[in-house]
Write a structure and sequence with these properties.
elongated, 4 strands, disordered C terminus, alpha+beta, 6 helices
Amino acid sequence: MKKTAASTFILLVIVLGLARAQEVKERAIFRFVEGNDMFFLQLKGNRENLARLTDFINVHRERFVSNSAIIYVNGYCVEVGKITQRQQRVKTMSNRVKSELITRCGLTEGNFITLNTTTAYGEERNIVLVSIPIPSQKANQEIEKGEEMPREQAVKELQETPHHIAKEHES
């Protein structure tokens, strides 16, 4: 029980710290015509979103070259048909968007983390959502320093943490 509570607390602290450290963000939605996996720039803001994303990536190019920033690509596809067909289509949609970014910005496949699903994204049925969180300079400096908490202090905090959490939830 103590180990689980302590582990949960540590994980929560890390996640909250990372969330605060990622100050600069960019997101774009690319829409696709149902039944067609071609990436049409003239469709519903795709051209503008691609231009905005390309500019953002070029401003932060050094982050991508050094692999200190990742581009998240999430594909969503809801269509009539077999699930294997939808899975292939959403994979193709995501790859078309990544190919545009690779070609225009000089990126590699290693700059992306891709997750595809055969569900909708809210009301959106056939889209690729691209998200780019950029860690702040302060977060990068803290990571580079590699400052560690002394072992004794870490053990003491781990032993005390579950008691504080339990007391807070009792009242």
